[in-house]
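Researcher: Structure prediction, please.
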Amino acid sequence: MPERNKHFGLYGARGIKGHEAVARQLDALAGYIATPITARRGLLARLHYLTRTDHARAAARQAGLTVTDRTLKAWLEGKRSPSRQNLQRIEQAYRTVRRENVARYLLARLNREGRGTRVEIHPLNQSHVVRPRQRVVEFRTLNIRHWDRIVQAWVSGDDRGLDDAWVDQIVDLGSQWGQYEYVTNIGFAA
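Model: Predicted structure follows.
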């Protein structure tokens, strides 16, 4: 696809891919548990979220948390502690289930019955690029009305799908859309 950067940062520019910034903002809107999983309180909060109902348990198992009910009970009672590998599985299952649970709500809020959501795109950081190689890339705003593909790719963890869905939206910036493939931040609210 034209406008895709092949050697980003070659002259010192800094930033992240636009779709990564969108995923980070969607994660912030999802409202994850703030206490780290390494603390007892954070572990218990995640386990309670994943085991509260039969539906939650089934979603956790589907997301990769495949331990026995006896082990879960021991963790909840504090008789045993999960290994480092199981802590990672719990965290991954929690994030996956949380994304699935908030996706419908977020999608409705972001689409706003066809009105969409205003997105602020902060351009890449060129402070380490020598002056003759710097280009003019200004702060932009864009109203995105169709968030379905973006949210679906975020929920499923499909990085390539999220990138494609994001690029399809920023093409509305016109002929300069490739300048916003890498950004410092993308902001929006739901």
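Model: The first strand starts at residue 16 and ends at 17.
Researcher: Thanks, that helps.
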